[in-house]
């Protein structure tokens, strides 16, 4: 049995699918175990079989030993690729792809040899399909091997589309279309369409042209050209498919083999349609999982199992009675398996709760995996029956003239179909039972709460439309008369993800884009808090508040009302009752009114630097549209940046123009803190003088107790003392990271409140910011040009959070941290050179509070490079910006 490798690859695919959570690159492995492993091996074996059956050429043109060598070469090449990609070993990928390509080219040459030596006959067009398909696989393999190089996002996207479509529609698609012209009616046991050969001949140029257009569009980055190629391919497939339609109408599928192959063709059409839509919409790299489900599970797996279910019994031979034995095994529970696979796959592609998707997908995997033991049982039963027949040949029944031919009953029974639907319903029920909240179910009714609290229903209804978009609801707070019936019509206007709303004991299901659902509270008994239950959304500020008119004394929106007794204080990370009641960061923020310029000015001339710092308490914007009463030096938070050289003297006059005592501490100087760092009351001043004895980026801050509150309120800044021989760069920026702890969310300067000391003690910031304002550099982006050197100084002024500064898409060839060169530097001061000839680079600058340094990098192509703290929760709190690089 030369199908043993296909069986092996299928078993491995099932194993990886079962343990995918613990397998690196599990999705990639499953796809390639099926397509490159099982299906490609089957194509080698069966295309050779069909070529011989159609052309009737001598066996010595391509002996069995030569065929086996090709299969071994294919097996080795496939194995090397499947090891090379997950281990990121590029040379292994190239070797494996080359071995696979050599095997395919050898296979094509042998097919071409058969075609040249064959006598004229029908359906030579099938061999031309095979030859064109064989051209596609080495091309697709080259695209795949190139992807392993680690290209830019743009080129990765282009090659990914070319790789997928060349292999799927070229290598697999052309082989399938060439084979089914003759195999499909044979499987149905009915005459083929008389137009079959001419339709196949006419469709081939159309399919070949489509592949050329598709690849040209993908390589050029022209989405609509790629879409045109997909549409032309679909048109060629429709033209070819006319040859399959008449046989199917004449004798519809009655067995697992034909029904499985027919289902595969339907999923192929679905896959092409979905791919066309995804390409037209934009990049497809984020939708690889969706396409893998359709093409691998729906199309490839069902095509392979269906074709083998028919071909293996026929090739085993032995006469009709023996052939029916393995066929009976393949037809066991045929309808049930097909319903579970196809309806289950459809359910998994729909926006169902995650645990429902898990339970259904497990059932689909089990239905697919059933083919493996059935195939083994079919072969064993056939071998036993053949041995028994050899020992005692059975009597050959003689059909009397005029006796009607008895056709076997259909294997696709209604009872089994109902069984398949029932199995799926059980899986759905288990998934809902494991996660009832995600399915929109609740266990209590609001009316019971109303009765318990003695609230009288008014009989009136308040109806409100609420929009979910990004990480916020609009409106995020409403006021309802006590006792009214409340109906919230929730619509999800976010095209990127699902949202829901839980309010008290009522909850909507998870909604896709532009879907709607209602939350109904029969009787409003008091203030309530709501939120989105999708993991992480509530913590991002997606909260909703119901206030009441005429609420009993002592009740407030901060009272526990959720299923777990959570309070609004937890939504932004603060202690109960102390957190803001409205979202802080949204996907559609207002403009930042007074952004802080991140450009770092050069050190001023001279060696003595006299500066006056005035302590002021002013309202400042800390996030787009969000204000806080900040404690500042010179009205900014962070305060002014000082810059100089080693040996420079700084004379700072501190004037306290605030309402409380303040002080100052410069880490850049070394002196006893008793006098210069003392706290002075409002209206007084002091002179602080220090000499910069060492280079680096140094923090300064107010050291009045509680020091954490003064730093968190904004009384901090940077002193930069340039290292000796610091090279000039094209652009130089400064980012001071700090935390913001809000007592309330104020949307105007007049409503701004001071820092929350309770939250500081709990170490739960609402925002983590660069230069005082969350996400300000998403709007007011840092600028650079392609090939220009950029230096970014970073100071973590805390008071509590560490930073891991990272530029997404960039690598640091120079790193200076806490007064020392870590990488690069003048004259190779660090562990590597900064001229591009070194062996290393850095991905992040890790800083504890009060530490600083700088990084340098050169960006090779235009684009938008996010600047983040790779403490990702802090990046999501606002430690985020963008470096825009232009040509």
TrEMBL record:
EC numbers, comma separated: 1.7.2.1
Listed transmembrane segments: 7-23, 29-47, 68-85, 91-109, 129-148, 168-187, 199-218, 224-244, 256-278, 290-312, 333-352, 358-383
EC class (word): oxidoreductase
Cofactor dependence: Cu(2+); Cu(+)
Record-linked InterPro entries: Cu-oxidase-like_N, Cu-oxidase_fam, Cupredoxin, NO2-reductase_Cu
Sequence ranges of Polar residues compositional bias: 556-567
Pfam families (alphabetical): Cu-oxidase_3
Reactions performed catalytically: nitric oxide + Fe(III)-[cytochrome c] + H2O = Fe(II)-[cytochrome c] + nitrite + 2 H(+)
Keywords assigned: Copper, Membrane, Metal-binding, Oxidoreductase, Repeat, Transmembrane, Transmembrane helix
Region (Disordered): 549-589, 823-845
CDD domains assigned: CuRO_1_CuNIR, CuRO_2_CuNIR
Domain Plastocyanin-like: 618-725
Family: Belongs to the multicopper oxidase family.
Subunit-level organization: Homotrimer.
Record protein name field: Copper-containing nitrite reductase
Organism, scientific name: Ornithinimicrobium cryptoxanthini
């Amino acid at each position: 049995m030369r199908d043993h490798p296909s069986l092996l690859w299928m078993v491995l695919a099932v194993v990886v699918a079962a343990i995918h959570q613990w397998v690196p690159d599990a999705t990639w492995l499953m796809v390639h175990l099926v397509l490159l492993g099982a299906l490609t091996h089957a194509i080698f074996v069966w295309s050779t079989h069909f070529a011989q059956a159609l052309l009737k050429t001598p066996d010595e043109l391509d002996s069995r030993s030569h065929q086996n060598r090709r299969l071994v070469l294919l097996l080795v090449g496939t194995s090397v690729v499947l090891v090379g990609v997950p281990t990121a070993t590029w040379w292994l990928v190239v070797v494996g792809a080359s071995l696979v390509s050599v095997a395919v080219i050898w296979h094509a040459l042998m097919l071409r040899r058969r075609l040249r030596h064959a006598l004229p006959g029908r359906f030579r067009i099938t061999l031309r399909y095979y030859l064109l398909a064989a051209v596609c696989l080495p091309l697709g393999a080259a695209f795949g091997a190139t992807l392993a190089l680690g290209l830019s996002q743009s080129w990765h996207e282009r090659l990914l589309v070319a790789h997928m479509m060349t292999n799927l529609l070229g290598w697999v698609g052309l082989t399938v279309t060439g084979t089914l012209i003759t195999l499909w009616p044979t499987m149905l046991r009915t005459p083929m369409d008389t137009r079959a050969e001419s339709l196949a001949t006419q469709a081939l140029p159309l399919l070949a042209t489509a592949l050329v257009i598709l690849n040209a569009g993908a390589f050029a980055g022209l989405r609509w050209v790629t879409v045109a190629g997909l549409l032309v391919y679909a048109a060629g497939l429709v033209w070819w498919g006319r040859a399959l339609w008449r046989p199917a109408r004449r004798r519809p599928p009655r067995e697992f083999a034909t029904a499985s192959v027919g289902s595969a063709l339907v999923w192929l059409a679905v896959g092409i349609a979905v791919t066309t839509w995804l390409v037209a919409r934009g990049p497809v790299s984020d939708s690889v999982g969706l396409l893998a489900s359709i093409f691998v599970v729906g199309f490839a797996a069902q095509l392979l199992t269906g074709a083998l279910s028919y071909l293996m019994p026929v090739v085993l031979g032995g006469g009709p009675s023996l052939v029916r034995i393995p066929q009976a095994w393949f037809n066991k529970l045929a309808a049930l398996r097909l319903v579970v696979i196809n309806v289950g796959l459809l359910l998994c592609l729909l926006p169902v709760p995650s645990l429902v998707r898990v339970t259904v997908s497990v059932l689909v995997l089990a239905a697919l995996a059933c083919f493996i033991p059935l195939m083994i049982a079919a072969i064993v039963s056939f071998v036993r029956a053949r041995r028994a027949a050899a020992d005692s040949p059975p009597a050959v029944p003689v059909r009397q003239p005029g006796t009607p031919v008895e056709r076997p009953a259909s294997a696709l029974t209604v009872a089994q179909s109902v069984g398949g639907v029932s199995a799926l319903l059980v899986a759905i029920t288990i998934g809902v039972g494991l996660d009832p909240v995600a399915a929109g179910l609740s266990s209590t009714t609001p009316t019971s709460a109303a009765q318990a609290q003695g609230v009288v229903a008014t009989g009136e209804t308040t109806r409100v439309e609420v929009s979910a978009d990004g990480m916020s609801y609009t409106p995020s707070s409403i006021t309802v008369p006590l006792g009214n019936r409340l109906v919230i019509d929730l619509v999800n206007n976010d095209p990127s993800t699902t949202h829901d709303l839980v309010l008290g004991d009522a909850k909507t299901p998870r909604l896709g884009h532009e879907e709607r659902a209602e939350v109904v509270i029969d009787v409003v008994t008091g203030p309530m808090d709501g939120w989105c239950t999708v993991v992480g959304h509530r913590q991002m500020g997606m909260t909703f508040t119901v206030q009441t008119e005429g609420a009993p004394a002592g009740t407030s929106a901060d009272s526990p009302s959720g299923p777990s007794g959570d309070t609004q204080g937890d939504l932004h990370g603060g202690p109960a009752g102390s957190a803001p009641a409205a979202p802080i960061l949204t996907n559609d923020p207002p403009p930042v009114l007074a952004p802080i310029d991140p450009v770092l000015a050069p050190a001023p001339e001279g060696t003595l630097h006299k500066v006056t710092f005035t302590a002021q308490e002013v309202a400042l914007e800390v996030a787009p549209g969000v204000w806080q009463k900040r404690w500042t030096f010179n009205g900014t938070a962070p305060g002014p940046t000082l810059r100089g050289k080693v040996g420079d003297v700084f004379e700072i006059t501190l004037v306290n123009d605030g309402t409380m005592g303040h002080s100052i501490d410069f880490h850049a100087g070394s002196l006893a803190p008793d006098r210069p760092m003392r706290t002075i009351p409002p209206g007084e001043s002091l002179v602080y003088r220090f000499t910069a004895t060492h280079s680096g980026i140094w923090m300064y801050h107010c050291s009045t107790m509680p020091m954490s509150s003064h730093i968190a309120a904004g009384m901090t800044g940077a002193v930069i003392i340039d290292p000796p021989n610091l090279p000039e760069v094209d652009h130089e920026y400064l980012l001071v990271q700090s935390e913001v702890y809000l007592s309330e969310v104020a949307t105007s300067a007049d409503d701004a409140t001071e820092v929350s000391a309770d939250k500081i003690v709990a170490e739960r910031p609402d925002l983590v910011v660069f230069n005082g304002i969350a996400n300000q550099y998403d709007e007011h982006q840092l600028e650079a040009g392609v090939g220009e050197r950029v230096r970014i100084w970073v100071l973590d002024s805390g008071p509590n959070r560490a930073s891991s500064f990272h530029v997404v898409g960039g690598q640091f060839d120079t790193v200076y941290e806490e007064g020392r060169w870590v990488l690069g530097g003048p004259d190779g001061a660090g562990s590597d050179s900064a001229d591009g000839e070194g062996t290393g680079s850095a991905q992040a600058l890790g800083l504890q509070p009060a530490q600083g340094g700088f990084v340098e990098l050169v960006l090779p192509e235009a684009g938008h490079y996010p600047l983040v703290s790779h403490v990702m929760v802090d990046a999501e709190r606002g430690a985020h910006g963008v470096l825009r690089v232009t040509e």
